[in-house]
Design a protein that fits this description.
alpha/beta, Rossmann fold, Pantoate--beta-alanine Ligase, Chain: A,domain 2, 2 domains, three-stranded antiparallel beta sheet, 9 strands, 40% helix, globular, binds adenosine monophosphate
């Protein structure tokens, strides 16, 4: 496994691999790897000739007062984990090289970046699409892998790939969870012992919604109310948003008729956690089973 820091070196290597007709799989990450990342990397390993994992804590997707400085980093540990998963290259660029002085070009996907996380993190997705576009240009992957854990991010990148006619296949991989259901996240390390216990309620609230929808409840307001009631049992938990949206448009639905994404963001102390679930209404579920 090689570690490449320089953009020009990464470009040269990727272009040589292309000339050799190697299928390049790219897994973009911010590092501090956990089983969620590793499951994606393993999928890439199975499906591509060359697996490149980028590790870059991208400053432009963090807002003022967010956790850019203290975001967990441990490149030595990441190296070990990546190596064990058969990664070929870690691309680990420097902030100054990705964003030299005078940098002023951004990629922005409109509309679907305005709700959900876009409301409380206004420039977040512009930062994400910009860095992902840069990674795509540097590496020119054939396949790129993202997690459903950051569902809105995945949809936004999918839209960017479609809108800009990019020749990249995108794969969205399932959410990997801890035993109690908490979605794995590099940010879970911030949680105190009691916050960590409370955090399991986030997934419980999504399962509650799943049960309600399965039993025929199609009114998003009623579902969200029940989820809020459950979460309010823990005073340390502050809801940023709970939203039930159409999976194609990410627009809120007034009644659940097709596939929906239930997305949630909460603060537990100072830590912001997100999670989601994709569900079909009971009528469609029955149709699928028959
Ligand atoms: P991050 O390092 O948090 O930016 O995540 C890098 C990629 O891993 C993103 O595509 C995430 O959606 C994905 N990811 C993060 N956590 C999980 C998880 N628990 N399960 C599956 N994918 C994840």
């Amino acid at each position: 496994m090689k570690i490449i820091n320089r953009i020009d070196k990464m470009k040269t290597y990727a272009r040589i691999m292309k000339k050799e007709n190697k299928l390049i799989g790219l897994v973009p990450t911010m590092g501090y790897l956990h089983e969620g990342h590793l499951s994606i990397i393993r999928a890439a390993r199975n499906q591509s000739d060359i697996v490149i994992v980028s590790i870059f804590v991208n400053p432009v997707q963090f807002g003022p007062g967010e956790d850019f400085e203290k975001y967990p980093r441990d490149i030595n540990r990441d190296e070990e984990l990546a190596k064990d998963c058969g990664v070929d290259i870690i691309f680990y660029p420097k902030k100054e090289d990705m964003y030299p002085e005078g940098f002023s070009t951004y990629v922005n996907v409109e509309k679907m970046t305005e709700n959900l996380c876009g409301k409380s993190r206004p420039h977040h997705f512009r930062g994400v699409t910009t860095v992902v576009m840069k990674l795509f240009e540097i590496i020119k992957p054939d396949i790129t892998y993202f997690g459903q854990k950051d569902a809105q991010q995945a949809y936004v990148i999918k839209k960017m790939i479609e809108d800009l006619n990019m020749d990249i296949t995108m794969k969205i991989m399932p959410i990997i969870r801890e035993e109690d259901g908490l979605a794995m996240s590099s940010r879970n390390i911030y949680l105190s012992e009691s916050e960590r216990k409370d955090a399991s309620l986030v997934y419980e609230s999504l399962k509650l919604a799943e049960g309600l929808i399965a039993s025929g409840q199609a009114n998003p307001k009623k579902i969200i109310k029940k989820m809020r009631d459950l979460l309010s049992e823990k005073p340390a938990l502050n809801i940023d948003y709970i939203s039930i949206v159409d999976t194609k448009t990410l627009k809120e639905v007034t009644t659940i008729e097709g596939e929906v994404l239930i997305a949630i963001a909460v603060f537990i102390g100072k830590t912001r956690l997100i999670d989601n679930i994709i569900l079909l209404p009971s009528a469609l579920l029955c149709e699928q089973k028959t």
